[in-house]
Amino acid sequence: MNTIDVKEYDSLRISCEYQDNDGQPLSLDGIAIESTMQSLNNQYKHTLGIEMSDMALGQFVLTSDAERILPTLYKVDVSFLESSSGARITSETFNVNVKNAVTVPSGVSA
């Protein structure tokens, strides 16, 4: 399982691509995307935002507008819902490891 490391005050932006089984990009036209980041102990949960980069090439970015994400290990997956057929496909799960930061940004409560 892949793991992405970030620090607790970092801006979370994860670039993604919707692909077929051969690794070829698929269009996101008519596809709704949802993603959740949840701690392994299920104590913390964040619904991630979705920014479309290039719909034709299946490119999008998972984002979080949280000022601070509590340090722990999170599991993440992405759900794709095809509007015309109602078919739902979910990505493989990956981890986001949020580490403690030493520096607290100005204007942010620790």
Automatic annotation (TrEMBL):
It comes from the Bacteria. This is Uncharacterized protein.
